[in-house]
């Protein structure tokens, strides 16, 4: 069991992160935020599959103004991603945003920063300081040999954090995303010893679905394994809907959260005489939304099959064009090839 680092509890709309709250899954829309209908629809699709906090880009006033209308039709907290322009932050807060991602050090005028922090304070909205390896300040880069090293990322993040604290506010979340997994891991591990603020994890620009999934799983997984991280986003190039199953998979792989039954299935080999791959894929698809904490074993033959199937809550071990059904370690009956999927799904439904 992973021992969580306990951080300050922060409220983002109707969700709490930090402390002992569940590690929340985030994503970001790819639509133009000013296109209210497209953005709302994308968020509703993401909610359906388990996205818990959603961020939208706010590059202009039209986008900031769209927040109010978008919020009316969605059910998860909305985060505004803002760079440089303090007026966009003020407008986003006015429109009822649930959290602002903004690096105050990028706003040159201290009075303007104070105005934003005062409004955040008044509305009790958290701010995420989000440092990326691609946008570390020049003077900090110079100090660290010209590269966004973990220490450079930390120094940059803390510089922004201190500005917010200076104006008397500590409703803060921090992220330090690098496209380099090793640098990201080191940054978070060091940072977790320096602050008590919740940490939002991610590997930025992780890439397309396949390689980005691997990079994010290793990077984010490694940090979570140390008990660090209160929320995270898997960043993949493409439809944001790709990100949610990966995020859920990371949490399930580490036994941190569970979103449906766990499926143990063998890779098959020359001993397998049933269509095991199809059976496993079909069962996984059909039970993925059944929120029950049980393990299903789908094994190809009698070598490891009965052993795994007995350890699981429900399981099958393949034979010659048939399979044996096990429940809680007991042999229940023989199943014909074409009834395996239906029986397993029914067993899960009735569990
Ligand atoms: S359970 Fe049987 S079929 Fe599956 S990989 Fe092991 S030996 Fe092969």
What's the mean pLDDT score?
95
Radius of gyration (Å): 23 Å
Low-confidence stretches: none
Global morphology: elongated
Please state how the strands of the largest beta sheet are arranged side by side.
Answer: 8-7-6-5-4-3-10-9
Order of helices and strands: EEEHEHEHEHEHHEHEHEHEHEHEEEH
Query: What share of residues is helical?
Result: 40-55%
Strand content: 15-25%
Distance between the termini: 26 Å
Secondary-structure content class: alpha/beta
The count of strands amounts to: 15
Tally of separate helices:
12
Largest sheet: 8 strands, parallel
- Which small-molecule species are bound to the chains here? iron/sulfur cluster
Description:
With 351 residues, the chain is an alpha/beta fold. 41% of the residues lie in helices and 19% in strands. The chain contains twelve helices and 15 strands. It has an eight-stranded parallel beta sheet. The chain has a five-stranded mixed beta sheet with strand order 11-12-13-14-15, sandwiched between helices. Strand 14 and strand 15 (330-336) form a beta hairpin. Helix 2 packs parallel to helix 3 (86-94) and helix 6 packs across helix 7. It is elongated and about 75 Å long. The mean pLDDT is 95.
